[in-house]
Specification:
Blueprint: E1 6-12, E2 18-23, H1 26-34, E3 50-58, H2 60-72, H3 75-83, E4 87-88
Parallel strand pairs: 3-4
Antiparallel strand pairs: 1-2, 1-3
């Protein structure tokens, strides 16, 4: 059985804040955020969210590690990632 691939993603909330998370199905996760079934951070006032950046191809441990690194980085670093508005596949 093949292991599921995990992604790290960043969404921009309606209030212009950024939220970083992980998922093995990013599109489904963004839909969950927009219907109020995602993270506690994304309260009704922050919806809808828009997917801005995705890094694909991690195992769950690698995705968690990368998520923590992004969350610890400053706003400028996050905005730099978001400005790419695309997908990144880490090299193995």
């Amino acid at each position: 059985m093949a292991k599921k691939k995990w992604s790290v993603y960043i969404v921009r909330c309606r209030d212009k804040t950024l939220y970083t998370g992980i998922s093995n199905d990013v599109e489904k996760r963004v839909k969950a955020h927009n219907t109020g079934k995602g993270a506690k951070y994304i309260i009704p006032e922050r919806r809808p969210v828009k997917l801005m950046y995705v890094e694909e191809g991690y195992d769950v441990g690698g995705a968690l590690k990368r998520e923590r690194a992004i969350k610890k980085s400053g706003k400028r670093a996050k905005e730099k990632l978001v400005s790419k508005m695309g997908y990144y596949r880490p090299q193995k």
